[in-house]
Specification:
The complex is a heterodimer. By secondary structure, chain A is an all-alpha fold. In chain A, 75% of the residues lie in helices and 1% in strands. Chain B has one domain: P-loop containing nucleotide triphosphate hydrolases (Rossmann fold, 3-Layer(aba) Sandwich), CATH 3.40.50.300. The chains are: A mainly alpha, B alpha/beta.
Chain lengths: 286, 253
């Protein structure tokens, strides 16, 4: 009898703890979103997203942050495309050409996990030291390359996890039809894994557009929209950082408006990634 | 029917890591007949089948010694053109794995990678091979649908047609009916009996009744060794070895 009561009490306690953790997380997330919206929405206007800053990003209360929106999109798009060019072949190589679980593959995976864990400021510092060595100034290109290095581990490992689930029988079937391993990789395995690959790409894009530290030293900041790869570029996270550190309250509120814009962009990415992956899932073989 | 030798296996030994999987296999697989590799699960039947088209290469821990000859061609020779070798051997796996594309593209995949791209030619081939596996009437109006929309039995027939489309000499089937319902299984068996006129067929199975229904030549394996092999009639009616006798009575099932 006592044992049963004890068991019941334990169950209640556990359930309460689980519920409490969930509640805290949900409340904190909602508070973040509400505080951004509360402070940002009043400053959000058509002007904010259609104009570049007037009178400097630090003191200027006029104009918008189009420079940072366009800059962030350039940077994230550029590094995602560049990253994809390396990540997909690498992920396919370790899954199709190299035997599964061989030592080299395990070492590569370990290395990528390590790189995933390194804070982006370290990538920024690395990029910066390379730039100094070559005498390059802060620019869109330097930013793209640094962010690419930073997102490649994310992209490769998330593609890797998807490619691992491709059934061995499918691989064998394709090879038995006389296709080479590379033909099998690009024509069959990729097609089978499209939902996962798209998710990996969008995940990396989200990280690229949201990161401040890697671009701080490498991409610089500017009030203008870059017209060439060797010009510095503004980004949304840095525009939030610089405007928030301004002494003028109006400028600080503009930082929250920038945060709203960044959040909306990320929201669009994650929703579209869900739509795309569920659309392709129907064609998949089990 | 000419009983030529199609595949000849001499002193084949296969190791995975330190494990000795296939032990000194010596066999002849007759041409244009249906050979069944029979034996309980885990006796190396599938490994033997996969070493014939070198799918064993996928596992880096596999070491093979000995020879397998397809006619005069040394299959295990390291410099052999492996895609050409595999094209000569269609594979039908345990459960069907259609490629993640349309029914039409599944059949044309093998043709396209060997450079046949003329549309008229491809369409004729698709119809021809789908008819051979009696799938044409069922799918002719939806060739552009994804192959995954077919039933499992239809998928397995599609996989057979896809294998036939690259014009193989040999069909390797690894327990091809184990995922199928009885009706689909019977379809596949009947197709094999028809196809053996033109192809050499090797079927791995652990279903004794199936072996009795379809086999011309039987190889009985146990724990990595070939215990006995010979024409089906001889093996089923006058087995020589004690183990074979016991297996045929159902002792290992």
């Amino acid at each position: 009898m006592i044992k049963k009561m004890f068991q019941k009490a334990k169950e209640y306690l556990n359930r309460f703890l689980m519920f409490f953790s969930t509640l805290i997380i949900v409340v904190v997330l909602l508070m973040i979103i509400i505080s951004i919206l509360y402070k940002g929405l009043p400053s959000l206007s058509w002007e904010m997203i259609s104009q570049i800053p007037q009178g400097g990003y630090y003191f200027g209360k006029e104009g918008g942050i189009l420079n940072a929106i366009i800059g962030s999109l350039y940077l994230a798009l550029g590094s995602t495309i560049l990253g994809l060019c390396f990540s997909l072949p690498l992920a396919l190589y370790i899954n199709i050409h190299r035997a599964k679980n061989s030592r080299l593959v395990n070492f590569i995976r370990f290395l990528l996990d390590l790189l995933w864990g390194i804070p982006s400021i370290v990538y920024g510092a690395f990029g910066f030291s390379v730039m100094i060595y070559f005498g390059v100034r802060t620019s869109l290109l330097a930013g793209i390359i640094t962010v690419t290095l930073f997102i490649i581990p994310i992209m490769v490992r998330s593609m890797d996890e998807v490619l691992k689930t491709v059934p061995k029988g499918l691989l064998e079937s394709a090879l038995s039809l006389g296709s080479t391993r590379s033909e099998t990789a690009y024509k069959v395995v990729c097609r089978q894994s499209i939902p996962g690959i798209v998710t990996a790409i969008l995940l990396a894009f989200g990280r690229a557009i949201g990161d401040a530290a890697a671009v701080l030293f490498t991409a610089g900041y500017t009030d203008y929209i870059p017209t060439a790869l060797n010009q510095p570029v503004a980004t949304l996270p840095l525009s939030i950082f610089f405007q928030l550190s301004s002494p003028i309250p109006e400028v600080q509120n503009r930082a929250y408006a920038a945060a709203v814009i960044l959040t909306v962009i990320i929201l669009i990415i994650s929703v579209s990634s869900r739509i795309v992956s569920s659309k392709f899932k129907q064609k998949k073989i089990r | 029917m000419i009983n030529g030798e199609k595949i000849k296996i001499n002193h084949l030994n296969l190791y995975i890591g330190k494990e000795h999987i296939l032990k000194d296999i010596n066999l002849v697989i007759p041409e244009n007949q249906l050979t069944v590799i029979l034996g309980p699960s885990g006796c190396g039947k599938t490994t033997l089948l996969k070493s014939l088209n070198r799918l064993t290469d996928l596992n880096p821990d596999v070491k093979i010694t000995g020879n397998i000859f397809n006619g005069n061609e040394d299959i295990l020779h390291p410099k052999i053109e492996i895609t050409q070798l595999r094209k000569k051997m269609g594979l039908l796996s345990q459960s069907p794995y259609p490629l993640p594309m349309s029914i039409y593209d599944n059949i044309t995949y093998g043709l396209k990678i060997s450079g046949r791209r003329r549309k008229k030619f491809l369409i004729r081939r698709v119809e021809n091979y789908l008819r051979q596996v009696s799938l044409w009437e069922e799918v002719k109006d939806r060739l552009k649908d994804p192959a995954s929309a077919l039933s499992i039995g239809q998928q397995q027939r599609l996989c057979l047609a896809r294998g036939l489309a690259v014009d193989p000499e040999i069909i390797l089937a690894d327990e091809p009916t184990s995922a199928l319902d009885p009706v689909s299984s019977k379809d596949i068996e009947e197709m094999f009996l028809k196809l053996k006129q033109r192809y050499t067929i090797v079927v791995v199975t652990h279903i004794l009744r199936q072996a009795r229904r379809i086999a011309d030549y039987v190889i009985f394996m146990y724990l990595g060794k070939v215990i006995e092999h010979g024409p089906a009639k001889q093996i089923f009616e006058h087995p020589q070895h004690e183990m074979t006798k016991a297996y045929l009575k159902g002792a290992y099932n």
